[in-house]
Structure of PEP-CTERM sorting domain-containing protein:
Amino acid sequence: MKLVPTSLMKHAAIAGLCLAAMNGARADAFAQSVLLIDNFRLLHHTGDAFKSTDFTSLNGAVTARATASLNGASVIANAPSTSILSSTMPDVAHQFVGLPTPPRAENDFGYFSVSPSLPGTFGYADQNMSGNAVTIGSRLAGARVETRADASLRSVGEAGGQSDVGTSTMFRFTLGASETMSVSFDGRPMTQAYASSGSGGGTNAIARLAWSVNIINLDTGTIMLNYAPDNLNGNSQRSRNGDYAGDSTFDPGWLTFSATSLMLNANENYQLTINQTTLANATQDRVAVPEPGGLALFGLGLLGMSLMTRRRN
């Protein structure tokens, strides 16, 4: 019988053990949420954009934040409150914890690619806003709001990453003439959650969006508009875990949205509030279970080591 050379058995054993280690106890969880709102305008019933001169009173503010965290370490940034009549809107510096550093350049709202490899271990968030919802002097109506949140884990054991980001705009106004008010904008929602096969039930990834606008009569308490489209809310939620592995993606492309209020009476006081939030969370709280392929490779490695021992004897 022809014997297998000892050197060959040695290399096969080492390779089997190494491949088993690579293929086995590794936990991957990833979630990303990106929401782009463009050309947001407040419109008359005629379709023309409201101008600041259409209001007998108009004031309000825009606030924004970005939060990122990983394994108990977190960073947060809040933009100073900005007047809705200002020519400068909030742009929160991107926030990140973990590696790579940074995961994305400032104001980069492009999507990460999950396959074939995850982008790292980090919590990440970013926000940017420009333009205005009504025409103010020579500045035409049309606001753009971009938010993103990402959480990624490539570790074994107890770990967690999460990030969130949000923008809130509030108008307080009184109209000079009775009129309805419509909101009109384009939106690009994208959410994705991924969990690797064999990472176990302790691995979870969740991504979701939340967007709403409402108008309330401050004098009577009547809700004049309450609009929260499904594609920017419940339809966007995506989740995966180690027992339900793979990726789940919501990416319908650019969509058009609009809604119209009840009649707004002249000389009554109203408040319009817009909230936009992107959320991503990833957790891994236990050691991953090696996949069957990894166990097979590990077994081959042990077999090779056993043959080497028997041959020496």
Summary: Helices lie at 6-23, 292-312. The two ends are 18 Å apart (CA to CA). Residues 21 and 47 are 63 Å apart (CA to CA).
